[in-house]
Amino acid sequence: MAPQVLYRVCYGTPSPLPVQISTLTIAPALLHAYTRRKVRFCDYPAITPSSSASSVRGTYVSGLTNADIWRLDIFEGGQYVRKKVKVKALTKVGDETGEGNVEGEEVEVDTYVWIEGEEGLEEGEWDFGEFTRDKLKWWVGNEEYEEVDEAVKAEAADRTGGRGAEGEIAIQLESAMTEDVLRSAV
Asked: How far apart are CA 32 and CA 15, in angstroms?
């Protein structure tokens, strides 16, 4: 997952403040015996178990909270199941073909594995470079996140009594301040 997509899902913005992501570690990793393919008629990929000769390069993210994982589960939806797998952290990243990769320690992680069947996938490898170059801009602020945003709003308990940054009182105060500024400008 591109970091901007991860940030948009977990923090509501593709460019969170450094303090928001200070607990995260994002590192390259290799998942053996899986393949990554394009989902038919979509921009995004799916990983599926495959021969032991194939592998998928991706990212290993540590420091996610339960709330982050809840948001990711919503975002990935019913086409995938979260599954424990073992990846090899990469201490050196090679070229796009994997030439020059240097594998480090093995780590158990959760990943999202495609469960909708082969008919929903195209032949051939999904291209991360093409996605980040040509399509990422459409993924960091559009309706793809609406379900996550709505679920977060529904679950959010305002423990500030409306006084928090997004609370009812704060919104009313901001509106009143804007009106005052406009009146004094006239």
From this structure: 31
What distance in Å separates the CA atoms of residue 28 and residue 57, rounded to the nearest whole number?
Answer: 7
DSSP state string for 111-179: EEEE-S-GGGEEEEE--HHHIIIIIGGGTSSSGGGHHHHHHHHHH---TTTT-STTSHHHHHHHHHHHH
What are the DSSP calls for 33-55, one per residue?
TEEEEEETTSSSEEEEE--TT-E
Beta strand 121-125 pairing with 55-62? unpaired
Q: Is 3 within 8 Å of 35 (Cβ atoms)?
A: no
What DSSP line would sit under 87-106, residue for residue?
EEEEEE---TT-TT-EEEEE
pLDDT in tens, 81-96: 999 999 999 999 988 7
Element (H, E) at 59: strand 55-62
CB-CB contact of 10 with 68 (8 Å): yes
Give the global pTM. Answer: 0.73
